[in-house]
Amino acid sequence: MADMVTWTILTSKRQYFIDKVKAPLMRSIIELARKYPEPTAENCIRPNSLVLIRIWDKILAREDNLGRDQLFRAVKKLDILASENKLGWWSRIPIINKIVIKVIRRLHIAEYEHDGYYADRQEKFLEYFLEEVVKGNWKPRNAPVFECWRPTVKAHFTCPSCSNTVAIGAGFTEEVETVGYQIIKETYR
After folding, report:
1. What is the pTM of this model?
2. Is residue 157 located within the same domain as residue 129?
3. Is residue 48 part of a domain?
4. Whether residues 78 and 17 fall in one domain
5. Which of 27, 55, 138, 140 counts the highest number of beta carbons within 10 A?
6. What's the pLDDT tens digit per position in 123-181?
7. Distances in Å between the alpha carbon of 49 and those of 45, 76, 113?
8. Is residue 158 in a domain?
C-alpha cells in the first residue's frame, strides 16, 4: 500500500508535497506563462486553438477558487501556445519534448489520482472538449505523421534465412505501407 500514489502524497509525505513540490511548481508555471503573450482569438491562427480558448474561458468562468486563478490562467496560456506551436525553439527538440512529455504525464496522472479538486477540473475540461468534438468544432490533423512521432508497429517480418526482424509501421498511407511490405518481403526471399 505504501507504493500507491495517493497514500504517498496525501499521507506519508503530505507536507513535503505541499511545501516542496506543489507550491514551487505552481510558482514556476505562473512565471513561465508570464513570459509569453496572451493567446486570443485575434492572435491565434489554428482553429483548434480557438476551441481551446473557448473551453478554458468556460472553465475560468466557473472556477471560484481565487487561490488557483493565476495557476489556471497560466495553464490556459501554455496549453493554447503549445497548440499554436509557439513555445520556442526548445519545444521542437525531440529529447526535450520526450522529457517534458514524461514529466507532464507523471504530474497529470499523479495530480488526478490524489487530488479530487484538480481531478474534477480535468474531467470538466474533458467534458467540454468532448462537447466541441461532438459539435464538429475540433478539426482533425492535416498530416498523417507527426513530427517526432514513432509510427505504430502493425506487424513484424522475420527473414527465414538470416533471422533479421523488421517492424512494419503505421502512420503512412496504405499504399506506402503495402509497397514497403512488398519490398521487405522481396528483399528477404
Report:
1. 0.66
2. no
3. yes
4. yes
5. 55
6. 999 999 999 999 999 988 655 555 566 666 556 556 566 666 655 554 444 444 444 44
7. 7, 11, 27
8. yes
